[in-house]
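Run Polyketide cyclase through structure prediction, thanks.
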Amino acid sequence: MNDISTSIDIDAPADVVYRVLTDFERYSEWNPHTRISGRAEEGTRLRVSPGPEAGRTPTFRPRVLRADENRELRWLGHLYVRGLFDGEHRFLVEDRGDGRSRLVQSESFDGLLAGPILRRIGADTEANFRGVNSALKARAESLWAEATEATEATETNDARDPAVDGASD
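Sure, done. The structure for Polyketide cyclase is below.
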């Protein structure tokens, strides 16, 4: 079996990271490497295709094997037929505490053509994974910063508002 694994630390909680990861409709807003359509639900099929910066990667129709909210998304895809070039792709979101997470993106490849294909495209595939990780990090951190700032602004305004403290005229 041939494996590629990448990871990135993200200054946002696991639920924010997972929400960005599985909000496929918004990928075009932040992810230049991948386009996904479908639902992140076990047993469903996705359509995973290259984004504008992905290079020459094929479109796959993998089946979701696991969709564990705020924790893991995993699917299995095949190039043409099972056993030729199969890939089990996994996103694992680890809660690091204090509003931080780690995203691990990996794929295990198997099949008759796994070795030859990975010798040809393995480095590009890993670079694509790193690009997705970086883009997801930027998106999740931005959304988390906006949410945190909005919460802080509300708390500051509430602290200044005498009605919040129960004061009356």
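The chain has one domain: 2-155.
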